[in-house]
Write a structure and sequence with these properties.
650 residues; alpha+beta; Beta-galactosidase, Chain A, domain 5; Immunoglobulin-like; ten-stranded antiparallel sheet; seven-stranded parallel sheet; 12 helices; 39 strands; 36% strand; binds 1-deoxynojirimycin
């Protein structure tokens, strides 16, 4: 061994052992004395030079950091960034290339990244391989979706032992046989390939970078940095949900003025198209007409929501739009959609038009128009835009998740910020926490959303799906899942050969507004279906989209989760609890409520005989006075849920 040293996190919960063994850097890690990562190698191979071996450790530096910062909006307002940093300076023997390896040790996880300072030898480089290993101490239970398949991240999650995975996307979430939870992911993916995780045999995992279409993994020029490789840790599944190391490992906000950022709930000319009652393209069933938009705006204003998303307003949707990405215009409207008139009307009602750019992965077509497109939105007062990237391969064969697209997504976020536009990205790159740096990056899709309930050939998202999402895709939040379908059996759908439906109860649909965090939450269903369920609609009107804090009192991945969040703008607390196919009862301690105060709990629960499969609609609305000392009993039906507002009483 050339070198070996142990470092600990601020409260010594996490221990990192760093080694240099015959010129190869390596690490292992333990958490509360329990081994998590066994000796694992580190390094990166360039086409020009192999920086995974023959390395000399020149020096290392230790520093400490403890600061609390605020999110302009979010699931948690104040976030403490408390870590110890160790930076290793490495040099390649003989040829002398330099590489730094920085570790940040938090009590709840580890982050590390490579950096290549400015140097002659790496002026224009190509990374051909990253050899970072994550050798696990056990064959944990894991939840994952496979990498290198069509449909991007839109798959049901698999639950297997780690030894059974092949190559998977991150976050890769795991539970040890002792009940610890961990998740491997990355933070601050800005100009690099996405990291997927490949199995090297049994419990040994390795970083696998999504290549360019010629096989290069990363192209760059020193100085350059990799994203942080992260391992979040928690005793419970809920701890993972409130683990903020990903955000802490991103740069602070580049936006000096964040006062223009807003959160809110929105309706849309959207579900219609997914059901098949209207079309994106022109014709008799065209959804995005001036008239229908105004109707939606009336509904939106009446109930006090933020705005109306309108898809299919711009030319290019006729024919097979997914295959004709080059014909989309982002400034030319269909003749029956008067953008000036609908935005004037929106203004008069105090609501917003939410813009839409479906690129269908025609990246050069979009990039050529995006400035004009944002200018148009600036001109008519559109402040939030949903973008879309339907397609599997981009511009001549690039993966959706390679460096080409990472760069594109980042570039659009920056351009949107310059135009004071908030983004909601569908078919996005996975979230690695860049909303800290660019807080106009509000929300995104990046998993199977509600739309799969409308048309997926497997009939929709099974009841367990939403009990896995918060611990996988949802860990890095926010997710534009688009809840708010009240007509669960989709009786509006003209044809329904696969018996598509929403596979849970109405109470569970309501609970999703708390369980799945997003600063923009959709109310997806058609206005007539929403108004047909006034009790449910009352909850949707009440639930906030911006939170002071988040607590997870109960969670078991794939089974159930209960999330509690405090409103950022009042003293009210909100609870969302959901279960999979099984009925469950919970006793929840309310010690999060302010001691000595009386609260009125407004409860939307599964009603008598509710059952996701046979009887999804019964919803029971009750109230109950309680205090922080009350133990609250929750009773969830099969595939059910519960939604509660705790309103402080005077
Ligand atoms: C897929 C998106 O997820 C969906 O929300 C959108 O309606 C379509 N693409 C069309 O852009």
């Amino acid at each position: 061994m050339d070198f070996e040293e142990t470092f600990t996190s601020p409260n010594e919960t996490l221990t990192l052992n760093f080694t240099m063994d015959s010129g190869i850097p390596g690490y292992s890690m333990s958490y509360n004395g329990i081994e998590i990562i066994t000796p694992s190698e580190l390094g990166v191979v360039f086409s020009e030079v192999d920086m995974s071996e023959g390395l000399i450790l020149d020096a290392y530096e230790i520093s400490a950091y403890d600061e609390t910062w605020s999110q302009p909006w979010g699931e948690q307002k104040e976030i403490r960034d408390h870590h110890k940093q160790v930076k290793f300076y490495l040099t390649k023997n003989v040829t002398g290339e330099k590489m730094n390896l920085t570790f940040r040790l938090f009590d709840e996880g580890l982050g590390f990244r490579y950096a290549w300072p400015e140097q002659k030898g790496l002026q224009d480089f190509v990374i051909s391989d990253e050899v970072t290993e994550f050798n696990l101490a056990g064959n944990h239970t894991s939840w994952w979706i496979g990498a290198y398949q069509l449909n991007r991240y839109e798959h049901l999650f698999n639950e297997t032992r780690v030894s059974e995975i092949d190559t998977v996307h991150t976050p890769l979430t795991m539970k040890t046989d002792d009940g610890l939870h961990l998740s491997i992911h990355e933070a601050a993916l800005t100009d690099f390939a996405s990291m997927t995780i490949a199995n090297n045999g049994h419990n040994t995992l390795e970083a696998d970078l999504v290549p360019w279409n010629n096989g290069d993994k990363v192209r760059g020029s020193a100085p350059h940095i990799s994203p942080w490789r992260t391992i979040a840790l928690g005793k419970t599944a809920g701890d993972l949900m409130t683990n903020y190391i990903t955000l802490n490992l991103n740069e602070p906000s580049k936006l000096e003025d964040t006062s223009w950022l807003e959160t809110g709930k929105y309706t849309g000319i959207w579900w219609d198209m997914h059901l098949g009652t209207k079309t994106w393209g022109s014709g008799p069933d065209h959804g995005a007409t001036t008239e229908y938009t105004k109707e939606l705006m009336d509904f939106t204003a009446k109930h006090g929501f933020y705005g109306v998303l309108v898809e299919g307003w711009n030319t290019g949707w006729d024919g097979d739009w997914a295959a004709n990405s080059d014909i989309f215009s982002f400034t030319e409207t269909y003749p029956d959609f008067d953008i000036q008139e609908v935005t004037r009307y929106a203004d008069s009602l105090g609501v917003k038009l939410i813009g839409h750019h479906e690129t269908s992965t025609g990246i050069s077509n979009y990039e050529a128009q995006v400035e004009d497109a944002f200018d148009l939105y600036n001109e008519v007062g559109v402040e939030a835009v949903k973008t879309g990237y339907v397609g599997d391969f981009v511009e001549g064969g690039e993966w959706h998740h390679g460096q080409f697209m990472v760069r594109h997504y980042r570039d659009i976020v920056r351009k949107a910020a310059e135009h004071k536009i908030m983004l909601n990205v569908h078919e996005p790159i996975k979230d690695t926490g860049i909303r800290r740096t660019w807080p106009n990056m509000m929300t995104r899709e990046g998993a199977r959303g509600q739309e799969y309930n409308a048309w997926s050939v497997d009939g929709g998202n099974p009841p367990s799906y939403t009990t896995i999402v918060p611990f996988t895709r949802g860990l890095v939040s926010p997710f534009d899942y688009t809840p708010g379908v009240f007509n669960l059996l989709l009786t509006d759908k003209p044809e329904n050969p696969n018996n598509n439906r929403v596979m849970h109860t109405l109470a569970k649909e309501l609970a999703l507004y708390v369980v799945i965090y997003s600063p923009f939450q959709m109310i997806s269903d058609l206005p007539r279906n929403l108004e047909a369920q006034p009790v449910a609609l009352e909850w949707v009107k009440a639930v906030p989209t911006d939170w002071e804090t988040t607590i997870v009192p109960e969670a078991e991945i794939g089974d159930h989760v209960v999330v509690v969040r405090k409103d950022r703008n009042s003293n009210d607390w909100f609870l969302g609890g959901i279960t999979n196919e099984e009925a469950r009862e919970f006793e929840i301690e309310l010690d999060f409520l302010e001691a000595g105060k009386i609260y009125e709990a407004h409860i939307w629960a599964d009603g008598d005989e509710a059952d996701w499969e046979t009887n999804p609609y019964p919803l029971e609305r009750t109230t109950q006075e309680l205090t922080s000392e009350t133990i609250l009993e929750l009773d969830l039906a099969k595939g059910g849920g519960v939604a509660i507002r705790f309103a402080e009483m005077d």
